[in-house]
Write a sequence for this structure.
């Protein structure tokens, strides 16, 4: 089966194509006496969004090792580049892994690579993003509910301005199907109640691009004419807020977010960002790891799934869809702190000491 020699050969081949795969774990077999080692490919989209390397990767690896002590894990970061991820996928397939967990850079662009994996009898678990092609299973959060939570929170923040207020929509990467679902969920709350004065898609979820787009919106609409900002995640919120501050917009309009990044939570405490969406990464990674191990062992994924979803191609596949949680200043303590995501000490860095005391985060 897979040996250290093969791992080394793969690593050398991958380095030559600027693709990084790291193999973790060792052992004689998946179970005592089995005589074989399971190998699971873990393909993540980038390392610029903090969640992938700080939350998802360690939690996925932890769950996989918990369920399969001898499983090898081959990790790759696509650096936000579709071509790199396609090459990583092909290298992983060529290595003969037993299952792949894929968080696609671009769901549609990865369809052919998913098809090649299926042809090689390697099941692909679409993680967080519903990749196209013949995937074997799917693990994520209810993406439309994320958007609904963002839309509801923005309306609450707008208060009397909720009807007819002018907002800027900073949507996510058009190659990420979740971005469309977030937008649809948000519009189900916002449509007919606010005026969408400007709307942008943001390739690769880039904070820098969001900054540039918000600067353009301010230039067109006027610094005092933006009542609220729908930012699809915390990176886009950061870029949007940076542009608003650069143009000396005061007070800042309410800005949404997603992923509950520590920097975003600090912005909420400091009054720069109104809300974020907390998606407990532990349960998502646990479900993804469990589904990957089941797939690698050839077990039915319905044993892990809690339901099914229909793919773009029309197939129904086993799925786990988790429930997101809205977080505002009033709920930081009872959500993120209570769940042990961050301590009060982590959130309340010295510049925020007075704000934390004011809002009871002590």
């Amino acid at each position: 089966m897979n040996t250290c020699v093969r791992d080394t050969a793969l690593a050398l081949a991958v380095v030559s194509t600027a693709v990084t795969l790291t193999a973790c774990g060792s052992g004689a077999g998946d179970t005592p006496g089995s005589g074989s080692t399971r190998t699971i490919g873990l393909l993540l989209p980038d390392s610029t969004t903090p969640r992938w390397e700080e939350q998802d990767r360690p939690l996925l690896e932890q769950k996989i090792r918990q369920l399969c002590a001898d499983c090898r894990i081959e990790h790759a970061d696509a650096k936000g580049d579709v071509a790199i991820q396609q090459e990583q996928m092909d290298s992983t397939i060529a290595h003969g892994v037993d299952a792949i967990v894929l968080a696609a850079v671009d769901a549609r662009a990865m369809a052919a690579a998913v098809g090649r994996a299926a042809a090689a009898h390697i099941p692909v678990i679409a993680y967080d993003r519903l990749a196209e092609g013949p995937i074997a299973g799917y693990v994520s959060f209810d993406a439309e509910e994320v958007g609904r939570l963002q839309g509801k929170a923005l309306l609450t923040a707008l208060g009397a301005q909720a009807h007819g207020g002018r907002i800027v929509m900073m949507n996510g990467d058009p190659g990420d199907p979740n971005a469309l679902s977030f937008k649809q969920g948000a519009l189900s709350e916002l449509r007919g109640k606010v005026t969408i004065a400007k709307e942008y898609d943001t390739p690769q979820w880039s904070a820098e691009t969001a900054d540039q787009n918000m600067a353009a919106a301010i230039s067109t609409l006027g610094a005092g004419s933006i009542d609220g900002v729908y930012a699809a995640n915390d990176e886009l919120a950061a870029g949007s807020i940076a542009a608003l501050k650069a143009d000396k917009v005061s007070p800042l309009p309410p800005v949404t977010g997603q992923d509950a990044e520590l920097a975003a939570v600090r912005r909420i405490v400091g009054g720069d960002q109104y809300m974020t969406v907390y998606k407990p990464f532990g349960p998502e990674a646990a479900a993804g790891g469990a589904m990957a191990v089941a797939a690698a062992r050839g077990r039915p994924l319905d044993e892990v799934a809690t339901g099914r979803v229909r793919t773009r191609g029309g197939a129904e596949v086993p799925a786990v869809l988790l429930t997101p949680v809205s977080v505002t200043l009033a709920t930081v303590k009872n959500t993120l702190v209570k769940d042990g995501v961050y301590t009060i000490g982590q959130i309340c860095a010295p510049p925020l000491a007075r704000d934390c005391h004011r809002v009871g985060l002590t």
